[in-house]
Specification:
CATH superfamily of the largest domain: Zn peptidases
Number of strands: 16
Radius of gyration: 22 Å
Number of helices: 9
Strand order of the largest sheet: 1-2-6-3-7-15
Order of helices and strands: HHEEEEEHEHEEEHEEHEEHEHEEH
Structural class: alpha/beta
Length: about 350
């Protein structure tokens, strides 16, 4: 088989969130051709491949959906270009190929999952969180072949709506839009105070103003801010919403979607040590990283309560960009790192 057949095949199936079915069907068929013990589509629409039949599980959870924006799939001598090549079909294909190379090992199951909807509300991960009880878990996200990610920030989203009575423009009274600007500046002021003295981005609040709307009906005017925030481990979503409500005063705060807390992985575990050894086996000097984004790690780790980390090839600065591509030599190294790490872990 081609060293890159899984990677190219998966990236070639464009699968933005909500449109993953074609890629899911292709991946389960690919897993069967690679002689997985079992491969199927679960009730959430995730692609699932199982290697082995032992009582102990290692779950390798990637995601098969991407952000919108189809990119022509092209390969040159060094790289593969295409939507999802980095985020995060590269890591998912790496999981698939590594487990195929390892094969079935006595006493263990390797379960590779291509989850749906990670780029939205993580419906696929929420489903599998209740279906498996692994001894170890590896989450697939791009962090380069020689790095292990041990933490992802939490997130929370809200619409904040300010209303004011309609007045003449010459009245000098504060408009709803002016009040909205003041509210955002108050959010920024609180965040700046909270972040003072913190050197790591992982430990900071990172707010984002993602949208502004306004209008009026002749009697009342309104302005709405769409505010998101990336949360550090010591600020829960509930903590943030309470603070935002305090800043908003008489404005209405509407929580949006699923908020998730930050998660930091334990560093001193057999799983981490196995990956450090795997990276060194390929000539790398392993490094740890804590990310400012949010991932399916945040969904499953609190439920599974087992040693977990995040691993995968690719440069995350290319996530969601028109130039998304993965280096093929990095992909190959990541497959070998994973093979060495997993075989060392379970033996």
């Amino acid at each position: 088989m081609s060293d890159f057949e899984t990677l190219i095949g998966l990236v070639s199936r464009y699968s933005p969130s909500g449109q993953e079915r074609g890629a899911v069907e292709w991946l389960t068929a690919r897993m069967k051709s690679l002689r997985y013990t079992e491969a199927f589509i679960d009730a959430a629409g995730n692609a699932v491949g199982v290697m082995g039949s032992g009582p102990k599980q290692v779950v390798l959870l990637g995601h098969i959906d991407t952000v919108p924006g189809e990119i022509k799939v092209e390969r040159d001598d060094t790289a593969l270009y295409g939507r999802g090549s980095v985020d995060a079909k590269g890591p998912l294909a790496c999981f698939t190929d590594a487990v195929a190379q390892i094969g079935a090992l006595d006493g263990w199951q390797f379960i590779v999952i291509g989850a749906v909807e990670e780029e939205r509300d993580s419906e696929g991960a929420r489903y599998v969180a209740t279906k498996y009880k692994p001894e170890y878990a590896v989450i697939g996200e791009p962090n380069r072949w020689d790095r292990v990610a041990l933490g992802y920030k939490g997130s929370a989203w809200a619409n904040v709506t300010i209303k004011r009575g309609q007045t003449h423009s010459a009245s000098g009274e504060q408009t709803a839009c002016e009040a909205a600007v003041d509210l955002w500046l108050a959010v920024r002021s609180f965040v700046d105070s909270f972040n003072a003295g913190k050197s790591r981005a992982f430990d900071k609040l990172i707010p984002t103003l993602r949208g502004v709307e306004s209008g009026q009906d002749g009697f009342e005017q309104w302005a709405r801010l769409n505010i998101g925030v990336r949360l550090p481990p010591d600020v829960s979503p509930l903590d943030w919403y309470e603070k935002l409500n305090g800043i908003a005063a008489d404005a209405q705060v509407e929580r949006l979607g699923f908020s998730v807390p930050a998660w930091a992985c334990e560093k001193n575990t057999p799983l981490v040590r196995a990956f450090l050894s795997g990276i060194r086996s390929q000539g790398g000097e392993p490094r740890f990283v804590y990310k400012t984004g949010t991932a399916d790690l945040n969904i499953v780790a609190p439920v599974w309560k087992c040693p977990v980390l995040v691993y995968g090839p690719g440069d995350s600065s290319l996530d969601h960009t028109p130039d998304e591509h993965i280096q093929l030599d990095e992909y190959e190294k990541s497959v070998q790192v994973l093979c060495r790490a997993l075989t060392g872990l379970v033996k």
